[in-house]
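Below is the data:
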Amino acid sequence: MDQDQNLKLVEETELLFRRVWKKYQNFLMFASCELSMQQMMFLKLLEQKGTCTPSDIAQQFEITLGAVTSFVDRLHKLGLIMRTRSEEDRRVVLIQLSPQGEDALLTFERERKKKLSCLMQRLDPLHLNKLNTALEQLNSVLAELEANPFTE
């Protein structure tokens, strides 16, 4: 396969990734939910960690602290998270799930499991294993390139 064909294949893959990711997110979200997939993943992170600082969030989601502020502000206004100050250092803001956030996450997870079960009934496990293998390989290559950027 020549370089032009390879480039075309990579561009097709990129387009397919975007289409699939958008459909996947839309499929998992339910109509009554006013949150994005990223916001739900953030709530899931808080459930797992218990408490996070804005720096933890920025690092986990690879976003700026400014983006974290607006992200946290929206979820706080919706009553899904609580912000408190650290007892040791009052400059440090601690973020955790509120009871309302826990309920929203529980509802989302319940719906997500139903939808994933439906999806799994329609997917061939062999194809899914091959897809996972290919995605793991892509992830490894991208991590390598990120650590050692290609230069011409």
